[in-house]
Amino acid sequence: MKRKYILPLFLLVQIIFLRILPYFPDFVEGFYSNNLYSRISHFSRGLLGRIPFSVGDCIYAVLMISVISWLWKIRKTWKTDWKDHLLKMLGKISVFYFFFHLLWAFNYYREPLFQKMEIKREYSDADLLAFTKRLIVKTNEIQHQITKNDTARIVFPYYQKESFQMILNGYDNLAKEHPYFKYKVLSVKKSLFSVPLTYMGFGGYLNPFTNEAQVNDLLPMYTFPLTTAHEMAHQIGFASENECNFIGVLASVKNDNLYYKYAGYSFTLRYCMGIWQYKNERVFKGLKKQINTGVLKNYQESQDFWKKYDTFIDEGFHFLYDSFLKSNNQKDGMESYSKFIDLTLNYYKTRKL
After folding, report:
1. Which pTM does this prediction carry?
2. Per-residue pLDDT tens for 112-124?
3. pLDDT digits (tens, 9 = 90+) for 219-232
4. φ, ψ at 229 (rounded to 5°)
5. 292, CA 20 to 30 Å: which among 26, 53, 300, 308?
6. Which residues are CB-contacts of 189 (< 8 A; sequence separation ≥ 6)?
């Protein structure tokens, strides 16, 4: 067999393998997520964590330039040598696909967190209403503790770099109760692509090749701890977006710092209010009246921020990312972000907020 066919055929083998893998979550959990991946991620973060800028973003920039340069180079021979060019392209995708899964993405196929933690996923409207009211009381309480004024919005007082370090306290406290959430070796950085990320509608992402957590440094700062905690959850091997939102909330509210608690509670409350706005406008309006004006001002701050960057671009990228998630064992796609409410609600059903 000619060498040019090997990598494209290997891509096909990988695709078939990934269609079988969802039937073996225990194998992924034991052999990969808690063993091989744990070693890979600790090595990557230890190697790159101390570098002050995002190595992964630099690699992506070089790759994008290389792809554009290659496409320009073959522009005149594409029609005549299309077969060779296509095989070469598939070969590069095959290598990319292999390392994407080896270095991180096999985590998409691990045991679901609700099974691991024995958390129910179903809830009634009565459950949601009771949980939302508890969240309103807790969020209002923390907002007033910080500002001493029900009408003042929260202004985050820490620098972004300082914030990354401080989130570790929440993960340490969380790991005392659930050891599998233990976070070691910090590697969280401001993304060099924060402006494009904002237009795409994303607050951050994990680079699967370098295991660096990238955070959009343009975000409203009161949301910074939650976004950081979400990306750190990806780093410790959780791929599902709803699970990372859930872990990010737990790591935020279990932090000893009130600003981090506020980030976690206000984030969860905002999603619950979004569900009520969709389900029952009358209930939504009644609940909204109970929320401190200062909290609502923070919500408006976020809304105004994203509105400034609202274009057709984010809709296009959300469609692509939705398709990406669905192709990687996440059947809910982009909707999975909001699905963390079922985990959080049932987790706190018998616990104190």
Report:
1. 0.92
2. 999 999 999 899 9
3. 999 999 999 999 99
4. -65, -35
5. 308
6. 52, 53, 54, 164, 212, 213, 214, 215
